[in-house]
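Input (structure):
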């Protein structure tokens, strides 16, 4: 034991005060296009729409339409790659009437929904967990600081990024002599309101409705007079592209997926996965409305902030959240997806230091090439040198 501790001490001191340059293996990620029909509604003809994705896109929630005699209703559903899809209970047993899933927590463990309170007939917010089932939930996230004061008249906030720093929405603005159309925007305290192109005119209306955890990638629509509505993918520093173009540029054969009328509804927190609805022409039971999940770019192992590379920021995230088990996900240091920030996450960051996303998908967040070199600062390693953390991080050394 004494020898092991001395070895650990020598390692910590050596890293902290050496020249600090280590060349590590830094495998670059590659494009990993994946399209899946969930096949979750063979007896449904409409209303099957996803409303939330977990941070890594592995959990999908939405609303499952049901028929009760001549009445239509809905129930929240959840889908995972391991367990498939399931409806969360029956309305009269656990959910208020007309319940609708509105989102899912970043770690995929909590489903949020709203429904009609049978006593007051008012909308109430619920949340569901595997352990506790549904329960009344009153906490509602507030808007980012300064946003309410900066909103123009006739504006609406459609979504707020998971980190609470960016909002997306639309504003009804005058165009021409006597016409009004929507313009889409993103807002942050640092940049203020940034208008997304194209600018509205007498024939064009633009909306933004969903953004990722960091507010970098946004879904919306471009509605032009005389043509069908286009579902668009926005970034502030890129021209918008249609959803079909995004898929085609990624190498997806649109005919091969056997679908039509595709509607991209939600985007994952890391901005790499999109879920939506459409008509699955090749479903086992015949054509039907279905939910799709498409992953456009593989995650870079060890990348906590989804910027496409593994660097000091990712190491800091793991150290700052060491031991975290509540709502642990990629942005809070859980890069392995086991819902705890520990040795495995630290190993993932260090072993993939300098890895970067493959720059082959126009419009997605892709950083400039990063060197596969690890520059270790003595300050970070001194943090690891603290006896309690060193022993927890590598007790086997």
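Output (sequence):
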């Amino acid at each position: 034991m004494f020898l092991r501790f001395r070895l650990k001490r020598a390692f910590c001191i050596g890293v902290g005060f050496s020249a600090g340059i280590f060349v590590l293996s830094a495998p670059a990620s590659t494009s990993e296009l994946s399209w899946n029909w969930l096949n979750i509604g063979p007896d449904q003809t409409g209303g099957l729409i996803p409303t939330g994705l977990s941070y890594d896109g592995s959990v999908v929630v939405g609303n499952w339409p049901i028929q009760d005699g001549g009445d239509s209703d809905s129930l929240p559903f959840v889908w995972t790659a391991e367990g498939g899809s399931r409806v969360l209970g029956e309305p009269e047993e656990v959910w208020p009437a007309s319940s609708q899933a509105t989102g899912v927590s970043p770690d995929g463990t909590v489903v949020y929904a709203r429904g009609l309170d049978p006593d007051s007939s008012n909308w109430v917010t619920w949340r569901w967990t595997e352990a506790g089932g549904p329960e009344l939930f009153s906490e509602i996230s507030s808007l980012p600081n300064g946003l309410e004061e900066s909103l123009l008249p006739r504006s609406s906030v459609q979504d707020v990024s998971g980190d609470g720093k960016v909002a997306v929405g639309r504003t009804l603005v005058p165009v021409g002599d006597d016409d009004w159309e929507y313009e889409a925007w993103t807002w942050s305290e640092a940049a203020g309101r940034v208008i997304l192109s194209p600018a509205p005119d007498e024939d064009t209306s633009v909306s933004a409705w969903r953004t990722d955890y960091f507010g970098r990638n946004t879904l919306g629509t471009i509605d032009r007079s005389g043509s069908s509505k286009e579902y668009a993918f926005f970034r502030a520093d890129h021209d918008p592209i249609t959803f079909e173009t995004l898929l085609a540029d990624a190498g997806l054969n649109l005919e091969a997926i056997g679908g039509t009328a595709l509607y991209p509804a939600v985007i994952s927190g890391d901005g790499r996965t999109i879920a939506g609805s459409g008509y699955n022409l090749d479903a086992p039971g015949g054509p039907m409305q279905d939910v799709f999940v498409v992953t456009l770019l593989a995650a870079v192992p060890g990348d906590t902030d989804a910027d496409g590379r593994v660097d000091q920021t990712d190491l800091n995230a793991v150290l700052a959240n060491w031991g975290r088990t509540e709502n642990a996900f990629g942005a809070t240091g859980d890069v392995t997806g086991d819902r705890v920030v520990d040795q495995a996450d630290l190993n993932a960051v260090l072993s993939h230091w300098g890895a970067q996303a493959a720059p082959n998908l126009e419009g997605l967040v892709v950083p400039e090439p990063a060197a596969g070199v690890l520059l270790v600062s003595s300050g970070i390693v001194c943090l690891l040198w603290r006896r309690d953390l060193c022993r927890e991080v590598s007790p086997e050394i």
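Notes: Helices lie at 2-17, 147-150, 243-249, 312-320, 343-351, 378-385, 387-393. The first strand starts at residue 21 and ends at 23.
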